[in-house]
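Duplicate of #3305? Posting structure anyway:
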């Protein structure tokens, strides 16, 4: 079954960016001349997605305004907005898109993570359509960093395309107990069965429904795969990550790269 829909959770409060996020949603902070969320929407379009569902909060009306405006800049893409009335975790946010997904496999993209192009998402979609199972994006990190992430337990070696079967996953393991150095990043392609698993989950210690718990059940039942990212990735979930992403994107933007590079070199030489 084709993957035609993508879900982007946008209901977070952006507390690490306050006070600016009291008036401007974190997802709409500028990345040079575009809001960050537009880059994620363009990634979806580049991977063949036809329908993007933004899971927002009613306290962030600017997200709905963005949805109405961006369709003029990304031809052929339909964008709808649904709402997460309470901040009950990523699993809950994904579950809020059930009606829009309509029983089909779907992608989930975390807007804090910006990818250099659409190739990873396109490959993950192809793996899902070929295997009939869910797929997660992966990144290799130094062993001493695995404790900050969800880590997969691979059921074999990466193939030449960077694809690996996943046995299970562990959330924020101790370094000595981590099953690999492959962490899960904010790109998922999921079969619709994950929504039934989310519905049956009990809230965790913080009262949140965690997507990882549903994915672990899917992985243990199989088929379930990971795809190693080989493209540029920026984590913009904190001010430093956002700033470094802006600098990188400006250096790659033909409209500003030459004068910005000259200014930056001069500034660093001072």
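Output from current build:
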């Amino acid at each position: 079954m084709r993957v035609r829909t993508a879900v982007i959770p946008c209901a977070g409060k952006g507390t690490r960016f306050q006070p600016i996020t009291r008036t401007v949603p974190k997802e709409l902070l500028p990345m040079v001349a575009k809001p960050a969320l537009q880059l994620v929407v363009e990634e979806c379009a580049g991977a063949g997605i036809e329908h993007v569902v933004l899971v927002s909060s009613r306290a962030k009306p600017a997200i709905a305004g963005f949805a109405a405006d961006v369709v003029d800049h990304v031809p052929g893409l339909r964008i709808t907005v649904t709402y997460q009335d309470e901040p009950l975790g990523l699993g809950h946010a994904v579950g809020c898109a059930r009606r829009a997904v309509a029983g089909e496999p779907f992608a989930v993209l975390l807007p804090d993570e910006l990818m250099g192009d659409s190739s990873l998402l396109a490959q993950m979609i192809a793996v899902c359509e070929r295997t009939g199972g869910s797929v997660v994006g992966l990144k290799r990190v130094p062993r001493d960093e695995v404790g900050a992430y969800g880590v997969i337990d691979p059921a074999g070696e990466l193939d030449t395309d960077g694809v690996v079967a996943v046995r299970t996953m562990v959330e924020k393991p101790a370094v000595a107990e981590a099953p690999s150095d492959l962490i899960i990043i904010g790109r998922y392609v999921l079969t619709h069965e994950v929504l039934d698993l989310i519905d049956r989950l009990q809230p965790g210690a913080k009262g949140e429904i965690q997507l990882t718990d549903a994915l672990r059940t899917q992985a243990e039942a199989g088929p379930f795969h990971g795809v190693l990212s080989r493209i540029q990735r920026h984590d913009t979930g904190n001010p430093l990550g956002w700033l470094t992403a802006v600098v990188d994107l400006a250096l790659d933007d033909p409209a500003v790269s030459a004068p910005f590079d000259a200014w930056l070199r001069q500034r660093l030489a001072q």
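Confirmed duplicate; merging threads. DSSP finds nine helices and 13 strands in the chain. The chain has a mean pLDDT of 95.
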